[in-house]
Structure formats: structure tokens, C-alpha cells
Fold these 2 entries.
Entry 1:
Amino acid sequence: MLQKREKVLLLRTFQGRTLRIVREHYLRPSVPCNSPLCPQPAACRNDGKLLAAEVTHYVIPDWKVVQDYLEVLEFPELKGVIFMQTACQAVQHQRGRRQYNKLRNLLKDARHDCVLFANEFQQHCYLPREKGEAMEKWQTRSIYNSAVWYYHHCEDRMPIVMVTEDEEAIQKYGSETEGVFVISFKNYLDNFWPDLKAAHDLCDSILQSRRERETESQETHGKEYPEHLPLEVLEAGIKSGRYIQGILNVNKHRAQIEAFVRLHGASSKDSGLVSDILIHGSKARNRSIHGDVVVVEMLPKSEWKGRTAALGENDSDDKASGESPSEPMPTGRVVGILQKNWRDYVVTFPSKEEVQSQGKNAQKILVTPWDYRIPKIRISTQQAEALQDFRVVVRIDSWEATSVYPNGHFVRVLGRIGDLEGEIATILVENSISVVPFSEAQMCEMPVNTPENPWKVSPKEEQERKDLRTTHLVFSIDPKGCEDVDDTLSVRTLNNGNLELGVHIADVTHFVAPNSYIDVEARTRATTYYLADRRYDMLPSILSADLCSLLGGVDRYAVSVMWELDKTSYEIKKVWYGRTIIRSAYKLFYEAAQELLDGNFSIVDDIPELKALDKQSQQAKLEELVWAIGKLTDIARHIRAKRDRCGALELEGVEVRVQLDDKKNIRDLIPKQPLEVHETVAECMILANHWVAKKIWESFPHQALLRQHPPPHQEFFSELRECAKAKGFFIDTRSNKTLADSLDSANDPKDPLVNKLLRSMATQAMSNALYFSTGSCAEEEFHHYGLALDKYTHFTSPIRRYSDIVVHRLLMAAISKDKKMEIKENLFSNKNLEELCRHINNRNRAAQRSQKQSTELFQCMYFKDRDAETEERCIADGVIYSIRTNGVLVFIPRFGIKGAAYLKNKDSLVISCGPEGSSEWKPGSLQRSQNKIISTTAGGQSVTFHLFDHVTVRISVQASRCHSDTIRLEIVSNKPYMIPNTELCHQSSLLKSELVKEVTRSVEEAQLAQEVKGKVIQEEHQEYCQTKGRSLYTLLEEIRDLALLDVSDSCAM
Amino acid sequence: AGLELLSDQGYRIDGRRAGELRKIQARMGVFAQADGSAYIEQGNTKALAVVYGPHEIRGSRSRALPDRALVNCQYSSATFSTGERKRRPHGDRKSCEMGLQLRQTFEAAILTQLHPRSQIDIYVQVLQADGGTYAACVNAATLAVMDAGIPMRDFVCACSAGFVDGTALADLSHVEEAAGGPQLALALLPASGQIALLEMDSRLHEDHLEQVLEAAAQAARGVHTLLDLVVRQHVQEASVSLGD
């Protein structure tokens, strides 16, 4: 069946000799053509994705087009694209792995109508390369020949357009075969897609930047950077230990000078290096960009430099550890880049004045990326003036050794600078979050639920599922106004006297078939994104807010875990997993449940399900419910105690809280009161997650998705220990238990904030919890440090986390495996799952980052239009939590802002505080020691700032055109800020949520003034009003939010 | 950038799918002087096998075994067999090891107890090496032993298999071997399904072993059908020339 051919390759070896290599090449009579027009689909074995049936023509790009215009071909509007294998191989060999992977993902993506045709393995399509024929010519010839064959294969029913950049080919083949047209890419876009403006723009800008590059390479002026070493040399160097491989991580605050290389895998062990490697200056960085995998050569010890501990221009967080600036650290220079991490960048064009000063070459414009860590990018465009007030997305094309800055091209406009929508779009792009509305094809897969055509439980499902509608009292406890209820609880007494506890989770996988359009989309999103004022759902609202939401009083599909517990000891006797049908009886909110638990029945009027009933049945129902909640709480307490005993921890504000917070809706703007009911629900969810984790791991030891939380590195705790020592506390960080205990005892009765800050530092030192595939990790590493469980996963929120959907599928497969039924679900293999985990972890970090950035955006907008000098609310009380050489880091509890306050300004004047608390700038010097900083003026006056001192700060906004605005803090006085007592409670209730509300309102007002309808969802804001009073819990939550993000920032590198 | 050994569409570098063998061509009785001889091409791997015996023990008589025949195997590979010219054709460590492996394989297959105190020599030479040399040698030697008329339990059919991205690849070519993944060589007695020799290079998780083993065994059975055809054809030709 197969025909054998031979290919002769001549390769040049390192020594310069030519090596003749003979490779076999097998041809087969048929390869999948993936066309719906195929006359013999059985012979072609078209089992993958097919091209759309309704296209007017197929388009076959030449190798050069695929290499250069892949971005344009990625437009989903372009349909019926056939990539020839020859072209794909050209990309693989000449454009590198990154571009090739992009192409591969495009081919895999069900949303794009494109297929690969393996023409080189088809016996009629394959053309051997002739003697003396140039590679390029052969590739074009081969692609054309395949295009002709393909045309005839489809029985001449579908015209084919081959697009090429080769003029000769257009001449030669243009009219050779009827039905196969050969035209240039530009021509193709003009004729077939005249309306697709975005594609035209992109095409033009690619063309222009390429032309620029060509002319540039002809000019040979002096090289700005040393050339990168060839790949073979790098690989050999890494193996021999001469070079070190790592990920480049640019310091946000000194992006010009400082970058660090985080070591990668094994190389750190061999070289014996513990810390990161400093890359000092842009020369040494040698054209690598933040996030690239680079190869570094160490400099001799005499050239090592230290990092700076002084507060930089934009220093707002506290990442740099307390090393003194003089201490030199390993320093190196980049000699090569293994993998480029270029993505889309949001940039700002220079304003008019700046353009003129750039002078001689007006077409090339240096634009400033929004992200400080990215160097300026050179763009060739004529639209610079039109674009100056906008945030714009660009891509980097190349960075030659001869050019100081990288070359890029313009992709699209996001929105005006300073405009809320534009800035939010910026945050999304910078975090690579793409949240286009769900497409029609995706919505078509969704079930219908309209008043005329209500959704019903199907009889088939009724037979297969366990029916709990009549037997169990199922209810949900959520925050008020929550619409995506994905978990419910039940508890009842069995006939034998034992208790049965049930956790019922929305059965999302019933509606989301594996590899359906909606599944692919959800996988790409990986999570629901919560920004400060809005959210982007992972699933369409028909599922998330309706059919998958376990609302009260309606029949819903669920996946349940039910435990039989001993009536007295609450020992788990049996566990049952399976699909069920439930009808939630009550949709309670936390406060109401707590009231019921406390025996306060006046709340009954707030429960709609009970209100309508008459007195007597109301009483009976109420008793039943109160018993269930009480029992549940009791069980949860027991389970919790058991977990604590098992060497567990009571680590406030780490995973338990995250869990609790994660559990329902992280509209973190609705901070929860620390009620016991929270704990009860959280504990039940942890229990369910834990048991499901055990189950799927037992059934699929090598391909289960679990969640691990590695124990933290002891070194990271040093700052925490130092700080605690300043206040006279001792923190024992040897295990999670001792850490939790000593944190509990480290409590300053005078200042509760001290404890909160210490806790946030502890949180910061923790590693992040991560998803992983069990096949790629040793069993000891499964442990979850925060929860002190040996196995843990996420199972309880499939509506807003893709990981839970995967776990649901695994659980279903495990059940059918137990029943010896064939496994219907197609599960991920270990490798694919590992890749998916990486993607989800990555997306989660992006979600956290975008949440943090949007919060900061709102903070800035809140303070932006206020005059910091006069307005009263811009003055606030702050706590010093870290000391630097030229300033201190301050935390402002009232707004949850962390920031730097300088004690020495640009003119080298230091701060001095008068006796009555006012401050001014005077010449003088600063003196820093372990836990205090002394500012001495020339006149001999001195002020001392200790760690954990309260100071009064003024908040203002430092506006920035190219980047996000930042909050600036200024110390007004070294005394705590006293709010007049009468205002205290009122004042302190101003939380992030209020702030967001206010900003959105002002934006809306502005928009209304322009008669533009505000897009912000009003109802969301109603909920923010619920927050009353400031609890320590919420405060802690806020610190934690920021703290966790800082850590993840560094992990994301 | 490493080569993509298995594309997303399921093709290997040379256009085969995961379980497909390379083209096999073989001939028996290529030399008249020897008792048995055979030549095989598996893809671009070419091997020549010659068998002498059973005959009296040559050299020191003390090597003679009282109850069965001594199988003596020698492997060599031509200096021009690889891309870069080799220094010495045989006697190096690798050749010796290969000789031992062949000996082990054929001791298991030949009914040695029928010829006590005698010796069977098998000489194998690889003319072109393009992956799977052990398999090619075994297959060639099987044919040569049959050509010599030495009784065997069954054919010995060998094939290699590798493991890439969760998929087992049968009959590795040189490019695939050089990529450095796990590689398994299997010599099978196809009728009984017994394994004459199993060898594994580099690490492979035990969970995947079964899959790779099955792929190799399947390929070996495929080799068997082909060799069987060759033998039948040869016998037919021989009988025609004898004039029966």
C-alpha cells in the first residue's frame, strides 16, 4: 500500500564537511482531505474537523504567506483555509517553534475553519525536488501541484485560490489550470474580503514593517548589541555548565537597568547558585524581553553588582528583600534566547510635541508600552497622529542587533487614554485575557429555557440519575443576590440511625460536551474573570445563571457526593458518588442561615420560600430546616477538629479563606462577615473536594487533576521573623501548625493591625496553590500545605472554573469504571492534562492580576479629580510595614492601599516633622537601621520612624500618560491620623466597594452627559451597598488580596 | 528545536503512521558456498546473514557441549554503513554485545539438542544502518538458518518499538532512534508468542511498557507474515529448479 521513495539531504556538519543523509519517504494513496465535498470520505478517513460546507472557495496559502501573514490568516472570518504540509514544515524549520505552535493551535482550534493537508505523504501530490532546484521554488511548485490535485479530488466542484508572494509563480501558474487561481495575498484580500478592514490594516502594517526591515538590513551601521550565539553552542554550553538557562524577569521599578534571571530546572543544582542572576543594563540584557527563556553567561566575580534597595520612581510594592545595596550578587549577561515570549503589547503613541522631537524619520515612531518592563517599540505607521490619544495594541516583529529598539507593527485600537472602558480593555490585553461575546455557533449548543419553551428534566436522564427531589431536603447557602449557585447541601437521618451528609454540585458537564465549541471556549477562558466592577463569565449566562444554577424550587441536574456518618462519632462509614436530580428547597443567604442557627427566627420573613406559607406548616418546615442547619454545623465542627488534629493548621486567611472566598462568587467586593455558617459551608466543600480527589486519584493514578500547595521556603519567612522581632514577637515557622499558633499569639492589644500585617507577610511568603496532573508528580508532593490534606482538588464550582469541569469528567469516568461500564468520557492523557494545568494556572494568575490592576485603576480614578491639598478624605492613617534606604512602605487600612512614601525627595531634601505634627522638606540626611529610619535635618532636628508606627499620609495620584496612573503617598505627619469621633464609624465604612461604586457613578455621569448609555450593570452596585462597617476580617481579606498577588507576580515569571 | 517525531495528524517523519512497518524485502540463498544465507532490507537498513553448520567444533574441542550444539554468532557492520565512516568493522564493544544478543536469541529458537557436540556459525553483516539493526540481523539470520535447513522451533521475528508523546511507534528509523527516546527491541517466536529476547534502552514508565511491548509484538507478527511469504516463495522456486 505504501510506496517507498528516498530523499537525499546534504547537511553540513560542525567541522564543515558535507554529510549525505538518505531518508526514506513513504507515500500513501490517500490522506485525510477533510473536505465535506470528498467523494470517498471512507477512503480518506476524514475523522478530524472538516472544512465548512458553505464556503465559496478554498484558499491555499503558499509557504511564504503562512510564514509572514499567519496573523491575518488567524482571522476567524477567513474560512476554508487549507494549510499544506509543505508550508507548515517551512514554518517549522525557518520560523521556529513559537510560530509553529501557533499554527498547530490554529489547526486544532475548532473555531477556526482551517485544516492541514499532508500533501507530502500523498502519492500524487508529492513531487521530489529536482537537482539544482531552489528550496523555495520547490515548495511553491509542490504546493501548487497539491492544490491542483485537491481541486480534482473534490471533483472540480470548489474553486481553489492559491495565494503566494512569488510573482514568478503567479505568472507561471496563474492560468495553467481552470478552477485553481494563483494570486497575491494583497490581491486576495482586496478581492475577496474588501470589508474586513482589520485584516487589511494588519496586512499593511506587516508589509510595511517587513519593508523597513529589509531596507534596514542593507544599511550597515554599527551594531548596538552582540549577536546571539547559535542554538547548538547554547545547548552545548548549558550541558557543560558554561552557560545557565533561565527566565528573564525585569524589575518593574528599574526596567532600564535591572533584570533578574530565575533559574530553570536542573541548571540551578549544577551551578550551586541559590539566588537569581542579575542582568545589569540593557547591553547585558542583549535584546531579551521580560519573560523570555534566555541563556546567561556569568561574569567574573570582580564585575558583580548589587541590587538597589532604595525606593525607585514607581516603587509601590515590597518585593525586594532587605539586602543592603552594596552586597554584590551573581551577575551575568545574556548570550542567547531559547524561547521568545512575545505577546501583544498595549502601547501609547507619543504626543505631538514628542513626535516632532523624534525628528528625522517621521514614519518610524517609538511607542511606549503600558508595561514598564517592556522596552519601547519602533512602529512604522502613517497614522501616528490619529492614534496619539488611544491605547493601541502592537506586536513585536524582530529585534536586530543593529537596532536599539525592537521593531513592531500596529494591530488594533483599544480605546481612549483615561477612559474607563479603554483602560479596562488595556488590563485585559496585558493579561492576555480575551473575552469576546459568545458566538452564535457556541450559543447554538446551549439548551433552551424560555417561558414558551421551558427546559424540562428528560425522562432518559430521570431513569439514569438518582432522584433526590422528594427524599432529601436540599438547600443552598450563598451570599445575598447570588445567581450562580453551584453547590447545595443536604443532611438527613437514615433508617439505621446514621446520618447522611450530601454535597450536590451543579452538573455542568451534562450541558458542556467535551470538545464542543462551548467547551473549547471555556477551556481557553479557564475561569470566570472578576474585575472590580464587572465580571466575564466562563460559561454563557443561560448555563451559569439558569440551567446550571441550583436555584430554589426547580428541578436541576447535579453531581452528588454523599457520606454516611456514624450518628455519634460522625465517622465516615460509606461514600457514594453519582449523578442526581435535585430540587433545592431553600436558597438561603449567609446572614439568614446564621440567624436561624442562633435561634433567631424573626428572619423568617426574609426567606421567600417560607413567607408564603400559613403559620402551622411554616413552623414545621422551619423546624426541619433549623435542625438541618444545626446538624450540618455540628458535623462541620467535627470534621474541622479532626483536620486540625491531624497536624493541621488554623492559618487564618490562607487557603481556608481563599477556599471560602473562592467557593461562591468572588465578587470580592462583597466581603463576608466571618460567620460560623461560612465555615460550615466551606468545610463541607473541602470535604467534598478531598473525597473526590481521593476517588479520581484511585481510579486514574496518572491522569487525575489535583491541586497542591507546596510548603513554603523557610528563607522567605526571614522578613516576617525580623518584623515580628521588632515588636517583640517570635514566629515559629517550622511547620504550618507552629506558624499558625505563633501568629495567633503575636497580637498587640493596642494595635490589631500589627497582627494583620504579620499575617499578610506570612501569606506572602507562601507558595501558590497549583493544579497539576498526578502522573507528573511524585505522590509525596500532592500534599496541600494550607489545608493539611494529602489530596485535594477543585470540584465544587464547575460554573466558574474549568478545572472543576475536568474533575467532574474524571469523576464520571471513575464511576463508570467502577461499574465496569465503558468510559464514555474522553479523558486527557497525562501530558495533555499537564499542559492544561499549566494553562489554567496561568489563567488564574492572569485573573488575579487583572483583578488587582482593575482595583488599582479604580483607586486612582477615585482620587484623581480630588485636590489632595484641600480635600479631607485624601488624608488618611497609615502603618509603616517596611523600611527602605530612602523611604518607607505604608499600608493604609481605610482604602486597602499599599504604597511607598519617600523621606528624601528628588532634590535630596529630607522630611522633618514639627512638634505639632506638620512636616516640611529640609536639607539633611537619612539613617537607616534594622527596624527604624531616622531623618536628620541640617539644623539638627531629627525624626524617627519605627516599623509599625502609625503616620498620617496624604494620598494623591501620579498621572501617567503611557502607563497606568499610580497612587502617591506623602507623609504629612508622624502622628496617627485622628478622625473626629463622630465621623469614625461613618468614615471607616468607605471600602473598596464604595470606592468602585463612586468611580463608576462618576464615569456614568460623565457618559450620561454625553448621552452615551452606561454599560455598567446597575444591579451589581446594589449589592455593594450591603457592606456595612469594617470588620477585621474584610480588612485581612483585602491585605491578602494584594499580598497574594504580589507573590503570584513573581511566580508568573 | 527538536524534530517533531509524531505530527498532530499522526504521521511520523518519513510518512508512516505509528504502527506501520518500513518496506521489507528479503531473499534467501544468496551465496552458494555457505550452508545457508539470506539478505534483508528493512527500509534502508540492509543486512546479510550467512550460516555454516552444524559441523564439528573448530578450534578448541573443550568448547563442545555434550548435550546440544554450540551457537556461535558474529556481528559486524560495514565501514560504509553509517553516515560517517566507521573505523573498524567488528570487534568493538558494541559488535560483541550484538553478537551475544544474537546468540541468545538463536539458542532459544534452534533445536540445539538435535546436534550435540557440534557447532553452528551465524555471521551477520550490516551493509547499511538506518535504525533497527538488531531486528534486521535477527530476521536475516532466521532466513539464513532456514536456508541452511537447521531445525528451529519457529521463526524468530524481531522488531523495535519506541515511545513518543504517549504513542508507541513501531520499527524505528535512524532519525527516531537518534532522538533519544526509549527504545525496545523484541525477538518473538510468533506461533507460540514466546519472547526470545527483550531489550530496552533508556527509561520508560512501567505503565507504558505494555503498550510499547504490544506495538513491538504486533510489528513482529507483521514481519513474520512477510518472512513466511519469502520462505514459501523460495521453496517454490527451489522446487521448480529441482524439477519436481
Entry 2:
Amino acid sequence: MHEFTIARSICRAAAEHTGDAKIDFMRVEVGALAGVSVDALDFCLGEMAGEAGLGKPEIVVEEVPAVLKCSCGKEYQTFELLEGCPSCGGFDREIISGMDITIKQIENGKERK
Amino acid sequence: MTADGKSQDAVLKVADKNASIAEKNRRTFAGQGLFVANLIGSPGCGKTSLLEQTAKHFGRRMAVIEGDVKTAFDSARIAAAGVDAVQIETGGACHLNAAQVAEAAAKMNLSKVDILFIENVGNLVCPSSVDLGETVKVAMVSVPEGDEKPAKYPALFVRAAAVVINKIDLLPYTEYSVNRAAGDSRKLNGAVEVIALSCTTGKGLEAWFEYLEKQTASAKRPAT
């Protein structure tokens, strides 16, 4: 249950980004290899946003696939790390992304895109 | 955020305070020529037993930071094995953090130490994504836990440079497949070192010591 600490870091980063303004909407992406429970993080963010001065934003937390690059040259997305490359079946792969937690979108305008 | 408060896209990587302290630890450890292993495994997989056996081989060339939710039992075991050990009680937290490690390391005399072990809180989930500034993560599993652990906890095993499979003396009594656990570990990280051993019988420990000697030698070489 380390999602509480991560939620605090996210809220701090968001508050810093907006100059402590209230926001309406925030979308957070969690990489498939981040080692974080999406549900727990969603819950913690909901609890902490107000305290961090962000108001009562709508919060969306999404798990995104890892991006791997295989030695055969194929770059692909997956949630299933135990499955080989869709092109050659191999496992000699480099992890391009999937370990990060990223704030993808913050909105405080009245009109949402 | 734009001045008129209109909606906008933001891409903000969340790098918490822990990450910057971990980087500082890493630089400090590298400057000392220390090889630092963050040992991560379930409660009861044999982390402290492995360190006791390792202490018999390396003696005062190694030191240990012990993480537990409660009690100093484990640091007492390590100290009894004759090496320097500092206990961190997390008081409920499921993993160690970089600041705790920095504080513990500052209390130790590491000038003659080659290997610093950080025994994390027994847990296969939370410690895997919290950087302590270690040189490598070592994932530890044991035969009675079942051979599907690497498959079930990929976030740890993609990050682990070495996987230790302990309690192989119990293989005759279980259906555990070392090949499956090792194979899944290699699918998750092609460069991983897999070492199967028994802290009870001592079988396989030589390979573990050899791995550590190799890592220690490369940690001592100045970075180019």
C-alpha cells in the first residue's frame, strides 16, 4: 500500500504545475510495470486532491501497456510480459517504457477539450 | 497552465522526492566503490539466512542494513554472524525508502566494506518500484512458495539483476520446477543471473559468492 505516498507526489506535482490553482480534471497514466495498483491509486488521489489544494477534480487513472523493443527490431505494446515478441516470438527485448507514472492531462478551464 | 485558465494538456512525469534521494545515495555508494544489493523477497523466503551464510564467507567485507516492519531480530542475527548491521523499523510501512537508507548508511563505517546489503521488508510488490540507490536489485524466492512467483510479480522481476531460488533441499517434497521459475525470470529480463541454492545444506552458495565477487570487482573499478 505505497499508493498513498505516490498519490501525494502526484498531487504535489500537479499543484506545482498549476501554481496551486484548483483544477477540474486530471488524467494519470500508470505503466504496466510501475508496480502500482490502479484502484488503490485512484482512491488515494480522490482523498488527497482536496487537501493538496486541487479542489474536487474528476480524476481518471489508467493503466497503460509497457512498450518493448525486440532485438528483431519490432517495437510493440503489451500487458503480458511473459508473452514473446509478436513478430519473432523472442524475449531479447529492451523496455522502452512501462515503469513510469505520468500526469497526462490537467484541466482547469470551463470548456473541456 | 495558461494564464487564462483554458484547458491544456500536461505531460508530467511524477518523480517523487524519493527518486532524487536515491540518486544521491547511488552517487555516494559509487564514490565509495561499494556494491549495494537491495534484497527483495517474501517473508520467510530466507533473506536473513542467506545473509548469515554470506557473512560466513565475506566477513567484515560486507555490511547489512536490515528493514523490518517491527523488531530488531534480524539485525541481531546478522551482528551475531560477525558483521556490521543497522536495523530500520518501518513501523508499518511495506518497504524501505531512500531517506531511511541514507540515514542508516551514515551511521556505518563502510570504508573497508565491499558489499552493502539492504534487506528490504518482506514483500514482493511495494519494494520493487521504490529506488533506494542500490547497484542492483536481487529478487529472492524459495521452493515452498511455488514456481510461479516470477510470472505473478513481473514488476519486481523485470528490475532484478539476479534471482536467488532458496530452499532447493526441499525440491524432492514439492512439484517446484526450477526451470520454470528460471525460465520466466529470463523472459522478464534476458540478462538476469539465476542462482538456485540452499542456505540449509550450503548447496549452490559458491555460485552466489562468485556472483558477488564479480559484482564487487566491477563496483571497485572507477567509472569511465
